[in-house]
Structures
1.
Amino acid sequence: MNSHHYFNRANYRGFIYGLIALLIFASACSVGPDYRRPPVTTPANYKEAEPAATAQSIDDVIKTKWWEMFADPELNALEEQVDLSNQTVAQAEARYRQARALVVSARAAYYPTVTLGVGITREQTSPTVNSGSGKKDAAPFTDHTMPIDVSWEIDVWGRIRRTVESSEANAQANVADLEAAKLSARAQLAQAYFQLRTLDAQKQLLDATVVADQKSLELTNNRYNSGVASRGDVLQAETQLKTTQAQAIDTGVQRAQLEHAIALLIGKAPADLSISVAPLKTTPPALPAGVPEEILKRRPDVAAAERLMASANAQIGVAEAAYYPNVSLNTTGGFESSNAAKWFSWMGRFWSAGLGMTQTLFDGGLRGGQLDQARAAYDASVASYRQTVLTGYQEVEDNLAAQRILRDEANMQDEAVNAAQQSLAVTMNQYQAGTVSYLNVIVAQTIALSNQRTAVDILGRRLTANVLLVKALGGGWKTS
């Protein structure tokens, strides 16, 4: 009897030791390629960057709240509402939570599944079963059971680990997507805000011109009443005034649309937002370019593309694991009795335990197709990643060029404004002296107004280029 118990204990210990050895082996084995980020071609410097901008650190200028560099309190207040109310950002945040939940679901496969059942069955055996035994038919009886089943897939080949690896990389990509949505919404808001302020400056300029045109009309009327000017001069002055007034009114259409767009970006109905009219006073800040390699660490869309590569790489391992046997541990135990009073007695216990292994021998090429699909998906993700990086370089170069060229254009335009204003003053003096016709005054007024409006437009374009450059550089976000 003792030797029998010793034999059972030895077998049990052997089973446990074998299981431990299998688990240790499983923890050290994962099929499929380990992920390494593919190289990308990175230029040493930007083509359009100036040496001073390249030498300066991006982090010294572009902070997390990058919009504060424009020193506009109203813009700051609007930007703070993006995270709270923008519905596109809310969608991205929900997708991130969904991705995190999928990680939890994938990790659950690391652990055994335990199920508990309770059953009460009334049974009556068939008379034909006992007819040959010479006994009477068995009486009906009630079977009380409470089985506990434990099943556990042992991750020998790393299928589960690769699945978790893929899910975690997807979740990290969703984090980057969330940051990209925030950056995009904030950049759109800043662009719309500066365009609105540009229209405010245009309206202010046109209103000032209307006042000047009214004075010109009064002067022309006085000259007409004195017999110095003709009726045609009066009509020309009146036409000039009405044209400028119409232009001032026309700015209201686009301004209203921009205000509505800003309301949408901060998650409000247009009726709930009103932005007071204010002139454009912001000076475009000088932004550094840094080095191209920083884009790999700063742009959230690049980070998302890189994480999707890692996810696709892990899926190759999942597909390769399908070629290997599936190893599982299954145990069942519980209590069973035909008497409810003895349902949970020690004598009514039962159990079984064992390891199982299954291997697919033929699947008509299913696994091969799935593996080829996984490899092709990875190759596509690599191409997408590299294209995203190249697009980032292009956007930085575009806005570096715009920042530099528009600055030079603004300086030249300021000189043109000064010259036009001096020309208008001289022409008005000549008209009052009677040496030129009023048509010369109209031409000088039109040129002066056109140059002033162009100067305001260039300032707005410079601010927009600044915002787009901040976006192209990834804002204040970093992969770390």
2.
Amino acid sequence: MLVDSHCHIDFPVLFDRLPQSLELMQAHGVSTAVCVGVELEKFPGIVSLTESCPNILATVGVHPSKTGVREPTVKELVTLAQHPRVIAIGETGLDYYWHKDMPKWQRRRFRAHIHAARDCGKRLIIHSREAIHDVLRIMKEERAEQVGGIMHCFSENWEVAKEVLDMGFYISISGIITFKNAKTIREVVRLTPLNKLLIETDAPYLAPDPYRGRINQPGYVKYVAEEIARLREISFDEVAKATTENFFHLISD
């Protein structure tokens, strides 16, 4: 079985066809998907979804690029994270692609999420886009290694991957690995210990080949696992077993 460690199945483009998405997960051997929170206003809907779908888990957080939404406090994040279906704090981090002026509020928000994770003992789901040096700096300053977690949709080089691994975080690989220009990530996949790899879709974004350019689905995480198996010259079953065990070890440890 497979685990999609990061998706947004609550987004309308997927939620409006939820039965079909769940059927595709089952058909492709995906036993579990994590619905990652991106704003607090939508958190009740995510919780409701997880309560009606036992194979969907949740996180709570505010995406670093989100503006015009309720700003999270450490206290509120800790309180919301007490729900038994919530496995982590995030999606958090920094995104300098959408906010090229590198606003201070993004960095304050990131620090609040790390503080909340440390306070409640939950893992972190970290997003980084064109901001990896500040992401790593803040992770170290705020002692993110005390809780660990997942570097979501990893797209950096092996040197960065080593720093992430040294802090006790797992490397999560998305459908980008199937793209023709993914040379850097392929090297990371070959070099990262198998017991530190996770797989994800980031659905509805980043659909892997052969569905690139279409709406992504949690069920398509199968294609990520297949590509990792090909790159590492091991069986698909070995990748499926390792990444699934890695995920459940991470959230239960």
3.
Amino acid sequence: MVSDTSAIASANDKDAVIKVFERLGLPAPVCRRTTTEDELVTAVSKLGYPGTPVVVKPPVSNGMRGIRVLREGAWDVRRFLTEKPQGLEISLEELIAILRRGAWPELLVMEYLPGCEYSVDAFIGSQLSVAVPRVRESIRSGITFHSRTELRDDLTEYTLAAGRELGLRYAFGFQFKLAHDGTPKVLECNPRIQGTMVASVFSGANVIWFGVRELFQEPVDNLSKPLHASEFLRYWGGVGVEAGECFEI
């Protein structure tokens, strides 16, 4: 239940996704692709660093791997003693020191988007297309722990238009973040079932089940009920076992 190989490759490349949005005239963050230390420093400077935070990330990655927010003086004594380390903020000098310890990677330098983040659960089939935007209220290690459906027409339109342009089908998703002026700009595409995609079920669109039915050429021509607001919360669980007891998973 996946799209064609070429569509997946394009959708996994964050720079390629941004270029699709630009080609369609949809909001996209300023982004520059770099392959050397000099290119990285130049791109960071052009986006306003150190006066303005800048995001650096690999073109292809997942689960927040490799992403950093460049911020001058990211950590001082007060923050060190009072805040839990998040692992995202770093200064340009600290980042360069790390990257010099191996083969220099290809990196994207992107506009920093300060607003809330959205994830959109989507489905494109032969008979039905639907997208369910939700606010990511709480995120831990890249996993949504609290999301709230917000049925924004703009995010629905952007997701389905870009998904078709990329050649995606079945279940997939996009992530967006709000810019300073409130404009939603694309972060990346997940050309697969997203980790919290089950949340869309509670808003009236079981996009995973739609994909299964499409795969088996069964009818997928209507929603079970109109899309509506809902919330989804994730909790850690635990199991206690007395000493000497046998417990099987």
